[in-house]
Specification:
Ribosomal Protein S4 Delta 41, Chain A, domain 1, Structural Genomics Hypothetical 15.5 Kd Protein In mrcA-pckA Intergenic Region, Chain A, alpha+beta
Length: 200
């Protein structure tokens, strides 16, 4: 899986973490010798491309994966942009992150890949696995006492789940109540512009 660097985040105007020591926070402008004022305004095509790149960086997905989600979205009835966002949001690694069972999306991806979770009592170790409404996600019993899960438990008191996800804090069970609404998706990029890019 592609690893996105601080430069990737800075180029797109994104912060990688909330830490003030993160280089994307200290230098919140695109990289390059011209500094914060040396970059031109984007064209319409450039803006669409930038939104696509933001989605890939935020969710740590590849071009072929994003295009696959778009192709699925256009085959369904409804707002293609919202459906595209829902498909990305309902990846298993993202659900683990959104539920608070991982501090970051990369950590969520790692936990899923290492077989920490059951979906409907079946082991799933594919980060891109698409969860569905009414699915139940649990931590495998032999992983509950690991150091990383113990650390995550301590941070759950401060975590607020989006309304489409329910987390039972004692059993660490996640339930998918509904599909995410547009306002509950990541607001740092526009799915509408991504749809416009692919439909050119």
């Amino acid at each position: 899986m592609k690893k996105y660097t601080a430069k990737n985040y800075r180029r797109l105007g994104l912060r990688r973490t909330d830490s003030p020591k993160d280089p994307t926070a200290r230098r919140n402008y695109p990289p390059g010798i011209h500094g914060p004022k040396g970059h031109k305004r984007l064209t319409q095509y450039g803006s669409q491309m930038a939104e696509k790149q933001k989605a890939k960086v935020i969710y740590n997905i590849l071009e072929r994966q994003l295009k696959k989600y778009y192709n699925k979205a256009i085959k369904q009835k409804g707002d293609t942009g919202i459906i595209l966002g829902q498909l990305i949001e309902m990846r298993l690694d993202n659900v683990i992150y959104r539920s608070g069972l991982a501090k970051t999306r990369p950590q969520a991806r790692q936990l899923v890949s290492h077989g920490f979770f059951f979906v409907n009592n079946k082991k799933v170790n594919i980060p891109s696995y698409q969860v569905a409404v009414k699915d139940e996600i649990t931590i495998r019993p032999n992983k509950l006492k690991t150091k990383i899960i113990e650390e995550i438990k301590k941070n759950l008191e401060k975590h607020v789940c989006p309304t489409w996800i329910y987390l039972e804090p004692k059993m660490l069970t996640v339930k998918i109540l509904e599909k995410p609404k547009a306002e509950e998706m990541d607001q740092r990029f526009s799915t509408r512009l991504i749809v416009e890019f692919y439909s050119r």
